[in-house]
Write a structure and sequence with these properties.
The structure holds two protein chains of two kinds. By secondary structure, chain A is an alpha+beta fold. Chain A contains 19 helices and 33 strands. In chain A, the strands form eight sheets. In chain A, strands 2, 3, 31, 32 and 33 form a five-stranded antiparallel beta sheet that branches. In chain A, strands 26, 27, 28, 29 and 30 form a five-stranded antiparallel beta sheet that branches. In chain A, strands 6-7-8-9 form a four-stranded antiparallel beta sheet, with no helix packed on it. In chain A, a hairpin with a 5-residue loop joins strand 7 and strand 8. The longest helix of chain A has 38 residues. Chain A is globular. The N and C termini of chain A lie far apart (73 Å). By secondary structure, chain B is mainly alpha-helical. Among the domains of chain B are: 129 residues, no CATH class; 54 residues; 106 residues, no CATH class. Classes of the chains: A alpha+beta, B mainly alpha. Chain A: It comes from Jaculus jaculus (Lesser Egyptian jerboa). Chain A: InterPro entries: TAF1C, TAF1C_beta-prop, TAF1C_C, TAF1C_HB, WD40/YVTN_repeat-like_dom_sf, WD40_repeat_dom_sf. Chain A: It holds the Pfam family TAF1C_HB. Chain A: One of its GO terms (molecular function) is RNA polymerase I core promoter sequence-specific DNA binding.
Chain lengths: 823, 451
């Protein structure tokens, strides 16, 4: 193989991470990497000129769901809000995290008292007398339970200073106090803290899905393939979905997918096609399995391996059919081959470069079929499986050699060798939470390319795709767990170094698709948002065709949904910002609406626990004795006993029969008037009336005039300005604002005028910029925005609320104060 | 002493930070997305200043626009972002110029309406904001100018940077100055190289020749000073070393050139750079060094990159050597090349191997072959000699298929599928070759029972 004849000048400094005294000469700016040096000698080395306008343009503003949502409900799990202490946080440069153990502990004691106290109860069994009459026990340490419960009954001593304390209770508390107060909280607190810390770490980085659980298996016939992915509530069902691509590059789902039921959740799916034989391997928490995918699509199982300590990564050999590398949390790396079976290649519970207490291990192949890379959080090493155990060469080290930052760790290491190599098959991709490195195994420790990806979540997914054309650079896809996607263009190979062929780009993420869904009531809206925000656990792409450079990407979410998006390589015309952004097609919107209907029909996820029912049942039974009230309280009681939600209709009374207490207000106050109308559900009619009343003729006449003025001054900006009017409006947190939005003219007149006033002093081309900027900012007291909104403008309310939710470039309007709807 | 002192200074900070990071998680890992998570939770307490919030939002807007290739938009946000230079947080204030330079230069590099003048103005301004970035920015600015072919301007920028000093010279500053000097040297090398080309066209007896060559001499002396300092610092300096050696060789300083190359290849503080050994080998070859010397250089390259194209040359050298151990190594080298995924279709390597295997087996060195084959026999058959490869090799390159078939036959016997498939093929031109191949396999295959 050829080796690049001239490497980039690089400083090589051995040492720990975050060494400050070394100038960072790595290629931080993408443009720096694109530079070539002129000169009489190296003319032949001058690779392709820089493609400044290399851009894959998405055909739509966001990815679309490929399949209807699965039948199993999905629960997003814990969030940072559930785990962290919420108050007393002082801003520091380095944020400090405090786990909220006390709150969780008290909740746990309330919700799962049986678990928390039952063992203690058993321990103290001899101190209780559970049944029997009045016969007096001689032991002072025995408490009669019946009387104790009677004393406790009906009281909530928790936080109640007037709770009656009997001598029995006092005795009980003296008896149980030392045991109850200390051992429970100590033991439980410790365990809970451990669990919370684990959950928090998982929330920051869920390494289980490293590598991704979605794969694209190309078929023999062009433009068809199979998506292999797990779905179902527990991700324990492996689906084989056939997909064909239309001539326009859109995916069409063919028939019902076949599936294999597994016993554990699927964490990683890898495939490899060697010598026309396609293999598929799957990693679960404690098992790995391998199939051979035959022609009729019927996968034949080859091998199942059990990993006792838990598997962290697998990879299939790109050179030899059926060879599989497996890593275990114990620090062992094994190679399974059809000839020799399982072979321990490497074992070290310690990490490679420096001590880091992480059990995560990773292994992949290299250009030599018998040399593996073994990686952990601190570095990556090359291990000869046939050589003496334990020795090898460090390929990458988190340290000064690669100008790593403090706290930087390896999150993903991937061999980029491919059957049709454009690059020499010696390149490895290494991703950390800050940067992306390309390392050539012939030049260990010195990255040949470094780029700061700046992703706001862990980059655990990467795919190198074949080039779109003979002289085109190769697209490298990088996916964050939060759904963010980046596309890098890498060229090089032969005698030149791999380098960025143009500036990297971001691709739309699943949350960008929110705008195509119709606006929903808050609860459903939240459900939809949660579903779209589900972590991305798989990434696959149908490779571009030479004839039409179209790239089709698939993303798998933790909720089991697959989203797809199509990218088109723009012809090399100089790109300006004025090119219209892609917009939703009616078909896409309709498709999303259908998907949404299916989603909302799903049963809600079962709650983890139900409110304890012992007390109120007993209370109800007690109250049954006094049968003197009418029908209404009876129904109330029935509903309570069943735990039902009681609506006015259920009581058989018209909703207006008992109006809620309306706020007392002076009739002149417009805001209060509107609020009270809205309270009674007549907000819309009030608005209509108001419009008619407010000297209809004048305002109506002024509005079109102002419109034209605006559009003429902001000629280039209008398309963005009208956004909330003609597109689907941004989500709003409450229904009243939703109703208000449905009113025909979206903008109350005075708002336009204030906008106009405010923007007069700003250069027209910067206005849109400023507006976007302002929209993104959180509302604060002294925003340099418009002058104070007149108090008689109640409609500004909904603008505010929508601003908080989405950065729609609408409101340069910021109120002086956070206003509340009052209910 | 100075180093120790700086370590002392650093210590308390790291300890403090370790304590804090241990709060983040059990590991010492940093999460760039931690702040965002925290912000969703925290309600009370002192929050970030508005100023910090606006600047941060603006920064994320610029980054977003850059990644969407919206250069115009990014430029507009950049206007507002400049406020970060007035941050009263001294840490941020210090970091600001570097961020602005990175983002700004990127915008100006790609912006369709940007030109060289704008870039130069921006670079000149940025150099003087925050003294610590002067050298870095100058260097990148010079590279930008070089990229656009403005050699003179680049030289001027580098000369200015070279003489720049600020405070006590830190090691980081020194490295940067060395780099600046080296790039200056490179520019001088370009000029020298151009003159050399012109010179080669002039008659040697000419008066112009002597003056010109005298000029060149003085220039070379200057250049050597420029390169010297940098190439002693551990790193990858291919371009500089190559240029320097070329100049030294031109002036007949063979010893100097050899020393530079030897140092570049063998200094342990340097990364193991294959090019260092390749340069040294090429130099020694030009120098007509003895074969043993060449072999010793290539032996090291063989240890680092056994897949390199030079390995075939190495094999030939070893074959020509008198030592038996070299002959044995020659076989290992060929096997080594063919182990790699990128070399499986290298017909030269296969031809060499087929020929050499036959030759070795003829002189009864069966044990050599067996030694090499031992570690490969359980994977070479699938890797090289599968039925799939037999078919596809024959279709794509029948010459390659014949060479491979001979090797397969010698190593795996005549009954093996690859050999059988090829030997059954009927080909007009290759018929004779296949016949010869069959004969060799019958006679020398290592699977034959030992007589």
């Amino acid at each position: 193989m050829e080796f690049p004849s001239n490497l980039h000048p690089t400083l090589f400094m051995a040492g720990p991470l975050g060494m400050t005294d070394v100038p960072d000469l790595s290629f931080m700016c993408s443009w720096k990497d694109a530079l070539t040096l002129p000169g009489p000698q190296n003319c032949k080395d001058r690779a392709l000129p820089l493609a400044k306008d290399l851009l894959w343009e998405p055909s739509m503003p966001g990815p679309l769901p490929l399949l209807p949502p699965g039948p199993d409900p999905w629960d997003p799990g814990v969030t940072a809000r559930d785990l962290l202490f919420r108050g007393g946080y002082h801003y520091r440069r380095r944020p400090q995290v405090v786990l909220d153990v006390t709150e969780q502990l008290s909740r746990f004691l309330w919700d799962h008292g049986d678990i928390a106290f039952a063992p203690l109860g058993k321990l103290m069994l001899e101190n209780f007398k559970l049944e029997g009459g009045r016969n007096y026990s001689k032991k002072r340490t025995v408490v009669r339970v019946k009387r104790l419960l009677q004393d406790l009954g009906g009281y909530q001593p928790w936080g109640c200073p007037w709770a009656h304390v009997s001598h029995r209770l006092r005795r009980f508390s003296i008896l149980g106090g030392p045991v109850l107060s200390r051992s429970v909280s100590l033991l439980l607190g410790k365990l809970l803290h451990e669990e919370l810390a684990l959950r928090w770490e998982q929330l920051l980085l869920d390494e289980a899905f490293t590598g991704g659980a979605l794969a694209w298996l190309p078929s023999r016939t062009a433009r068809t393939g199979q998506l292999v992915y797990p779905a179902g509530g527990a991700l324990d069902r492996l689906y084989f979905q056939e997909v064909s691509l239309t001539s326009a590059g859109n995916p069409r789902v063919l028939k019902n997918p076949g599936h294999i039921q597994l016993r554990g959740p699927v964490r990683q799916v890898v495939t490899s096609t060697i010598q026309e034989e396609t293999l598929l391997a799957v990693r679960s928490d404690y098992h790995c399995a391998m199939w051979k995918v035959g022609k009729p699509g019927e996968p034949a199982p080859l091998k199942v391996l059990q990993v006792e300590k838990g598997a962290t990564g697998i990879n299939l050999s790109p050179h030899l059919p059926g060879e599989l590398a497996i890593c275990s949390r114990s620090g062992a790396v094994c190679l399974w081959t059809p000839q020799d079976g399982l072979q321990l290649v490497y074992k070290d519970p310690e990490t490679l470069a420096f001590r880091d207490p992480s059990p995560w291990r990773w292994a992949d192949f290299t250009a030599h079929p018998r040399v593996l890379t073994v990686g952990d959080r601190t570095g990556v090493k090359m291990i000869d499986t046939q050589g003496p155990p334990g020795c090898g060469l460090l390929l990458f080290r988190c340290g000064a050699e690669a100008s790593c930052q403090k706290g930087e760790r390896v999150l993903l290491a991937q061999y980029l060798g491919q059957p049709d190599p454009v690059f020499p098959p010696t390149l490895h991709l290494i991703c950390t939470q800050f940067s992306l490195y390309l390392v050539d195994e012939r030049l260990p420790l010195v990255p040949v390319l470094k780029w700061d990806h700046g992703l706001p979540s862990a980059p655990l997914l990467a795919r190198l795709l074949p080039p779109a054309g003979p002289s085109c650079p190769q697209p490298l896809l990088l996916g964050g767990q939060g759904g963010q996607l980046q596309l890098l263009h890498i060229s090089g190979g032969g005698t030149s170094m791999p380098r960025l062929a143009g500036p990297p780009q971001t691709l739309p993420s699943v949350t960008d698709s929110l705008s195509t869904f119709p606006l929903l009531e808050p609860k459903h809206q939240q459900q939809l948002e949660e579903r779209l925000q589900a972590p991305t656990i798989g990434l696959a792409a149908a490779p571009p065709w030479i004839s039409t450079p179209i790239l089709l990407l698939f993303q798998l979410s933790a909720a089991g949904d697959i989203f797809h998006q199509q990218l088109r390589l723009l012809p090399g015309a100089p790109l300006l910002d004025q090119t219209p952004p892609p917009s939703w097609t009616p078909q896409a919107t309709a498709h999303c609406s259908r998907w949404l209907v299916d989603l909302l029909e799903l049963p809600p996820s079962p709650t983890a626990w139900a409110a304890p029912t012992f007390s109120h049942r007993r209370l109800l039974g007690h109250m049954d004795l006094q049968k003197s009230e009418g029908e209404l309280p009876q129904r109330l009681r029935v509903a309570m006993a069943r735990g039902q939600l009681l609506r006015p209709g259920d009581l058989g009374t018209p909703p207006t029969a008992e109006p809620p207490p309306a706020p007392e207000c002076a009739p002149q106050d417009e805001l209060s008037e509107r609020l009270s109308e809205a309270w009674e559900g007549r907000g819309a009619t009030w608005w209509e009336r108001q419009q008619g009343r407010a000297s209809g003729s004048q305002t109506q006449a002024k509005r079109p005039k102002r419109r034209t003025q605006l559009s003429s001054t902001f000629s280039s900006l209008t398309s963005c300005l009208d956004l909330p009017d003609d597109n689907s409006p941004p989500p709003s947190p409450d229904q009243t604002s939703f109703k208000a939005r449905l009113e025909p003219p979206g903008i109350p007149p005075s708002q336009e005028s204030t906008q106009e006033l405010w923007e007069r002093g700003v250069r027209s081309e910067r206005r849109q910029t400023l507006r976007d900027y302002m929209a993104k900012l959180p509302l604060q007291k002294d925003t340099p925005g418009p002058a104070a909104t007149p108090p008689s403008q109640p409609s500004s309310n909904w603008v505010t609320s929508s601003q908080q939710q989405t950065p729609v470039p609408r409101g340069s309007q910021a109120p002086r104060k956070r206003q509340r709807m009052g209910f | 002493m100075g180093l120790d002192f700086s370590e002392e200074l650093r210590k308390p900070v790291t300890e403090d930070e370790q304590m804090e990071t241990s709060m983040l998680s059990a590991k010492g890992m940093h999460f760039p997305w931690l702040q965002k998570q925290l912000e969703t939770v925290v309600t009370g307490g002192k929050k970030k200043k508005d100023f910090a919030q606006t600047t941060r939002t603006c920064l994320s807007f610029i980054q977003d626009a850059l990644l969407k290739h919206q250069w115009q938009q990014a430029a507009e946000y950049m206007h507002s972002y400049l406020q970060t230079l007035e941050d009263w947080d001294s840490y941020k204030k210090q970091a600001a110029p570097e961020i602005i330079w990175k983002l700004g230069s990127e915008i100006l590099f790609y912006h369709p309406k940007s030109n060289m003048e704008t870039f130069n103005t921006f670079a000149d301004r940025m150099k003087n904001i925050g003294v610590l970035n002067y050298l870095k920015i100058s260097l990148q600015h010079a590279l930008y100018l070089l990229h656009h072919g403005m050699l003179e301007e680049a030289n001027r920028t580098l000369s200015q940077a070279e003489t720049w000093r600020y405070g006590e010279k830190s090691s980081s500053q020194e490295i940067l100055i060395n780099l600046v000097q080296a790039y200056k040297g490179l520019l001088e090398y370009y000029a020298w190289s151009k003159k050399k080309m012109e010179l080669s066209k002039i008659d040697e007896d000419d008066y112009a020749f002597t003056t010109k060559s005298r000029n060149m001499l003085s220039q070379s002396w200057k250049t050597s000073v420029n390169f010297c300092a940098l190439i002693k610092t551990p790193g990858v300096w291919d371009l500089f070393v190559k240029s320097y050696v070329e100049m030294l060789e031109f002036y007949g300083d063979q010893d100097g050139a050899r020393e530079v190359l030897t140092n570049y290849a063998y200094d342990e503080k340097f990364p193991s750079n294959p090019n260092a050994h390749i340069y040294l080998y090429n130099f020694l070859k030009r120098e007509k060094a003895p074969r043993a010397k060449l072999i010793s250089v290539l032996k090291i390259l063989y240890d680092i990159v056994p897949s390199h194209t030079l390995m075939l040359e190495f094999h030939m050298l070893l074959r020509k050597s008198e030592k038996e151990e070299h002959h044995k190594l020659g076989l290992a080298v060929l096997f080594g090349v063919l182990d790699f995924a990128g070399c499986t279709k290298n017909i030269t390597a296969w031809t060499y191997l087929a020929k050499y295997l036959k030759q070795i087996l003829m002189v009864n060195h069966l044990s050599w072959v067996q030694e090499e084959w031992k570690s490969r026999k359980n994977w070479w058959p699938t890797f090289h000699f599968s039925h799939f490869w037999a078919k596809s090799d024959w279709k794509e390159d029948s010459d390659l298929a014949c060479e491979k078939a001979l090797v397969a036959g010698l190593l795996l016997g005549k009954g093996y599928r690859y050999f059988r498939y090829i030997s059954k093929q009927d080909h007009e031109i290759l018929r004779k070759k296949i016949k010869r191949m069959k004969k060799s396999v019958k006679k020398y295959s290592i699977t034959n029972p030992v007589v």
